[in-house]
């Protein structure tokens, strides 16, 4: 038995929480994955995993073995990287997960320049606004807005995006232009709401001026859980939308959208690129992260945090 291969397969089963998902991610037949784990258990003379028809759980011995072997596997990957051309010529696939509007309006238009710089790196771009489990879904990194509180992740702040409230000219012609957030509560205006893909709850629009603060989740004709659809709700005149300023600015410039309540600005939202703390930072991942920092610089209200080349543990 190739012990290193068996260790890698076992680690993938633990991280994926399933023999089937591990086999898919490793591109191996499921019986081969099962057999390697069974042989590893026989060699160690200990039960590493508990299997039922619905799930796979790690035994206490298996958890201890995973923690120690994960460090060994990371060191091996780093050694192999040092002895190859990877550091000077990054190659391979980076699996990234990112929200829809950021993917379509910020990353995608700039990817040709990335490929020109790193022609042997491929990007597998998962596009959704739902939270993903990086380890279980074999994702290398995510780009997300909001506070990063998961201490199992290493995060790098890349931007501080300001919010803007907008509506289409047709909507404002029909309903008028609100002068204060109070008007969003009395039925004179409709909000096109955004709700969390994880919880199903509406994310309230926040308005702040001095010591006044409003959180508004007013009834509207539509609620969406995807950021590109949220933008399109504003463009099609379905209601007022509060979203990221840099995303809507091109539409404001063309007159397709009009900014309202400009003097009621909520605090900007931090954006991070994050990856699992126990995973080796390969050359392909590092160059992608550094490129993302460059891409987000125009959207960054606090660039000092993004200037460092280090990837510190998230303290947000």
Structure in a nutshell:
The protein has helices at residues 3-16, 19-26, 30-44, 60-83, 100-107, 111-117, 169-175, 227-235, 245-254, 283-296, 304-307; strands at residues 49-51, 56-58, 92-98, 121-127, 141-145, 153-161, 163-167, 193-195, 202-203, 205-209, 212-216, 223-224, 241-244, 258-260, 269-276. It is α+β, with helices and mostly antiparallel strands and 316 residues long.
Percent helix: 25-40%
Determine the number of helices (DSSP H or I, runs of at least 4 residues).
11
End-to-end Cα distance, whole Å, is: 44 Å
Q: What share of the residues does DSSP label as strand, in percent? A: 15-25%
Arithmetic mean pLDDT: 85
The oligomerization state is single chain
Task: Walk me through this protein's architecture.
The protein has 316 residues and is α+β, with helices and mostly antiparallel strands. Helices cover 38% and strands 22% of the residues. The protein has helices at 3-16, 19-26, 30-44, 60-83, 100-107, 111-117, 169-175, 227-235, 245-254, 283-296, 304-307, and strands at 49-51, 56-58, 92-98, 121-127, 141-145, 153-161, 163-167, 193-195, 202-203, 205-209, 212-216, 223-224, 241-244, 258-260, 269-276. It has a 5-stranded mixed sheet with strand order 4-3-5-15-6. Strand 8 and strand 9 (202-203) form a beta hairpin. The longest helix is centred in the N-terminal third of the chain and has 24 residues, at 60-83. Residues 302-316 have low confidence and may be disordered.
